[in-house]
Write a structure and sequence with these properties.
By secondary structure, this protein is α/β, with parallel strands linked by helices. It contains twelve helices and twelve strands. It has helices spanning 19-28, 42-52, 66-70, 95-110, 124-129, 137-144, 177-180, 183-199, 226-240, 257-260, 271-282, 317-330; strands at residues 8-11, 36-40, 58-60, 74-78, 117-118, 155-159, 164-167, 207-211, 244-249, 265-268, 287-291, 297-300. The chain has a twelve-stranded mixed sheet with strand order 3-4-2-1-5-12-11-6-7-10-8-9, sandwiched between helices. Strand 8, helix 9 and strand 9 (244-249) form a beta-alpha-beta unit. Helix 1 (19-28) packs across helix 2 (42-52) and helix 8 packs parallel to helix 9.
């Protein structure tokens, strides 16, 4: 086992998605000795095991008992909110349990009962129907982190051994990106990335490659002026502050092997500009890491997959990569 280290705290994700069966498969196929505990409805996990044909005893416990239980079965901390079990059928009635799972996993880390949060996928649209007011997981975790004291600035990074990317703007319509993009936003994001890559990933002086917004990085202003008025001044300010940042670079030439060898992380100006190459190059190995929090949070880099939920077809590779990275960053 991992000596005196606390377990990793895993959320169940949307009960109608593949999270429950991924948790089971990750316990069955575990390749790391780091124990984890799932905050979920035990009945939901047991039903998922039966449907998927997974032999994994469900052991109800608290975080303190997770390490002792882990070798015998999947440790599960029961939730107080009830869950309706219907794979592939998202239900706003499950929102309270989904949110409770996240809150209790974060609180377990804050109390020292767990050492990192590993989240299974949620369905934001389903939560919105129930009144959820945050754009997504990342922003909600940032709000919960304020219990540590002081404001946070959460930053989403998609990480794999092949490529790491950080979108500066995240869950907003593409039509709103240019208006939301500011030099201050780029600078704040890059500073968080530089700090966490150094402190948590142990990268000495991280190399940041900053993409342009427009085709050909604006072509000297012929295809847009955001590179001139926003992105380049931000990069100059970062370099003046001692951060190794280059750009703005044309996004269409940033992701081939020789280009990737020149940087540790790519900062892109909007969601798909970075996540398309990241998921194309390392879909099953990609991990969503939230930087800028007072705790480590990782997550598989995919969604709820309602279309295959309950069929035993879900691939646990990305969740297992998330567990492995959370373990690595908190040892």
């Amino acid at each position: 086992m991992t000596g005196d280290l606390a377990p990793l705290a895993m959320t169940m994700g949307d009960p109608a998605g593949i999270g429950p069966e991924l948790a089971l498969a990750a316990w069955r196929d575990r390749t790391t000795d780091a124990p984890f505990v799932v905050f979920a409805a035990p009945g939901l996990i047991a039903a998922a095991a039966r449907r998927a044909g997974l032999t994994a005893p469900i052991i109800e416990t608290d975080p303190a008992g997770a390490k002792a239980a882990f070798s015998k079965g999947l440790p599960v901390v029961p939730l107080t909110n009830r869950v309706q079990d219907a794979p592939g059928c998202p239900n706003p009635a499950n929102a309270a349990a989904t949110i409770e799972s996240i809150e209790r996993a974060v609180e377990a880390v804050r109390q020292g009962e767990a050492r990192a949060v590993v989240t299974n996928p949620i369905a934001k649209a389903t939560l919105y129907e129930a009144g959820f007011k945050y754009p997504g997981h990342t922003e909600y975790l940032g709000a919960l982190a304020e219990a540590w004291g002081g404001p946070t600035f959460p930053v989403m990074m998609i990480w794999s051994e092949t490529l790491a990317v950080v979108p500066v703007t995240i869950h907003i319509p593409l039509a709103d990106v240019a208006g939301a993009l500011t030099a201050d936003l780029i600078i704040r994001t890059a500073r968080v990335v530089d700090r966490d890559l150094s402190a948590r990933f142990r990268i000495n002086r991280p190399r940041l490659a900053v993409a342009g917004l427009n085709p050909h990085a604006g072509e000297g202003g012929a295809m847009g002026r955001e590179e001139i008025t926003i992105i380049k001044p931000a990069i100059e300010a970062l370099r003046a502050g001692g951060i190794d940042a280059v750009g703005p670079l044309p996004a269409d030439t940033m992701f081939h092997p020789k280009a990737r060898a020149r940087y540790d992380v790519a900062l892109t100006m909007y969601h798909d500009q970075g996540l398309i190459p990241a998921k194309t190059l390392a879909f099953d190995e990609g991990v969503n890491v939230t930087l800028g929090l007072p705790f480590v949070r990782t997550s598989p880099d995919h969604g709820t997959a309602f279309d295959i939920a309950g069929k035993g077809m879900a691939n646990p590779a990305s969740l297992m990569a998330a567990l492995k990275l959370a373990d690595r960053l908190t040892r």
